[in-house]
Design brief:
Layout lengths: L14 E2 L6 E2 L3 E3 L4 H13 L4 E3 L15 E3 L7 E5 L4 E5 L4 H10 L2 E2 L11 H6 L16 E7 L5 E5 L4 H7 L8 E8 L1 E2 L2 E10 H6 L1 H7 L2 E6 L5 E10 L8 H10 L3 H12 L4 H10 L4 E5 L1 H5 L7 E9 L3 H14 L8 E6 L14 E9 L5 H13 L3 E2 L9 H7 L3 H11 L8 H7 L2
Parallel strand pairs: 3-5, 4-5
Antiparallel strand pairs: 1-2, 6-7, 7-11, 8-12, 9-10, 9-11, 13-15, 13-16, 14-15, 14-18, 17-19, 17-20, 18-19
Length: about 450
């Protein structure tokens, strides 16, 4: 999709997100080859009264990147710009895909401290929506940002850090595309290290009873609960001396194919066609797990391929509310007629200082619910959301939710700080869309 010619009003090809639940038909799509071209595209759109949205690889489930105006694809703005080993930072262009960044850093003997569980997203898309992994002491990818540059509504390039435009820096690390188009990000990095992962099946009652202990004892703890069963799979990642000892072929196949991709795709297709089979499938799948331990460099332990398409809702709860909410979720599924074929994922994060981070100002636990693409998900998500919001939950900015600005003003103490900054940086809502109107208000 190239750039439309000046004054050209015909609509370019429609854009769809990864899950296929969101689409957009922009007036034109631009793929700027330089920051200067991006600034010009923003200025021109503003002059024409068109709105502008940047979109990465479309891994969000919300309409955060949807526009009827100019759609910016930042993929040509990619790659590492500079490495400062003394400061422990790397500066990368906004369209860099996390997979490419991780591989490039590893070649330089460097790594991010923490990351999410997939790496298909662009760095700007992942951070703008608050992508996170799990960690006792290390927070989301956005919390590892030490500086950023963004093109504002008037086409200016604004540099932000704790020293430069600190009030913008506080908010723009997770800006949901509302403050401008991010062009580069500077991340804190550290010398490459090894993680040893221990995966172990564990009963639901034991995991929930020991949850605080597992979080305290491990640098990165997460678990998956299989609905319709009392079975969970736990994963603990901790630093080790190495050497690398990746998973054996059989256990890699079980994790990557049975539980994540090929076979999982087949059983989900069966479950979609014949929902009554789902509880039996869940019991078999959750029992197929066995304990395994492996060691590798961070991105090979934190992330894994995800080829099965799904729709997801995830809420961040105060950490002390997690166990109660999860028990309520289990009780709700058990008494409902719902058939849920995807495991429920639980992760944690320390408090951070980013204005609209889901972990802003509070120790956090995340509960993520998923449904296979093409399966009706509204009933499950609505019932889950009722539980999460009763616990003061904050929905992930890039995942399905029904919350609005009034709700966010109540669960984010610094919400007004963000909206005031948006009023200053983008008074005419050049970067606005329907999603931002709902979640941030007018």
């Amino acid at each position: 999709m190239g750039t439309a010619t000046a004054g050209h009003k015909s609509r370019t090809a429609a854009w769809r997100n990864w899950a296929g639940n969101v689409s957009a038909t922009p007036v034109r799509t631009v793929t700027p080859a330089s920051v200067g071209e991006l600034q010009e595209a923003v200025r021109r759109a503003a002059e024409q009264g068109l709105r502008v949205k940047a979109v990465g690889t479309g891994h969000s489930f919300t309409a955060a990147a949807v526009t009827d105006g100019v759609l910016v694809r930042p993929q040509a703005l990619a790659g590492i710009r500079s490495i400062d080993r003394a400061a422990g930072t790397v500066t990368v262009a906004a369209g860099t895909v996390l997979k490419d960044l991780n591989a490039a850093l590893a070649r330089e003997g460097l790594s991010l401290t923490n990351m999410g569980d997939i790496m298909e997203q662009t760095v700007s898309g992942a951070t703008s929506t608050g992508t996170h992994g799990t960690g006792r002491d290390s927070a989301s990818i956005a919390a590892q940002i030490r500086g950023l540059e963004l093109v504002t509504a008037d086409g200016q390039l604004l540099a932000c850090s704790e020293k430069e435009n600190p009030e913008v820096f506080a908010a723009a690390r997770i800006g949901i595309g509302a403050l401008g188009v991010v062009t580069s990000l500077t991340f804190a990095v550290e010398p490459l290290f090894f993680l040893t992962a221990r995966e172990e099946p564990m009963g639901f009652d034991r995991v929930t009873a020991e949850f605080d202990q597992h979080v305290a004892e491990n640098e990165h703890f997460e678990f998956y609960w299989f609905p319709h069963t009392g079975n969970c799979n736990t994963k603990r990642n901790n630093r080790s001396q190495g050497p690398a000892a990746p998973p054996g072929a059989v256990s890699a196949w079980i994790e990557d194919e049975l539980l994540s991709n090929g076979v999982f795709q087949a059983v989900n297709s069966l479950g979609r066609a014949v929902p009554a089979t789902i509880p039996a499938i869940a019991r078999v799948a959750s029992r197929a797990l066995s304990a395994r331990t492996y060691t590798d460099i961070p991105y090979k332990v934190f992330t894994s391929p995800r080829r099965v398409r799904f729709v997801e809702m995830e809420y961040a709860l105060p950490r002390e509310q997690l166990v109660g909410a999860l028990r309520e979720l289990r009780a709700m599924v058990d008494r409902s007629g719902l058939r849920v074929s995807f495991p429920v994922e639980v992760r944690t994060a320390p408090a951070d200082d980013i204005t609209l981070s889901t972990a802003s100002g509070r120790e956090t636990a995340y509960i993520a619910v998923h449904m296979y693409r093409g399966t009706p998900y509204q009933a499950y998500f609505t019932a889950a959301e009722r539980i999460f919001t009763a616990h003061g939950g904050r929905p992930h900015w890039g995942k399905v939710h029904t919350r609005d600005a009034e709700y966010f003003a109540a669960v984010y103490p610094r919400f007004a700080e963000f909206t005031a900054l948006r009023d200053r940086l983008d008074p005419d809502r050049v970067f606005g869309n329907d999603y931002l109107r709902r979640v941030l208000g007018d």
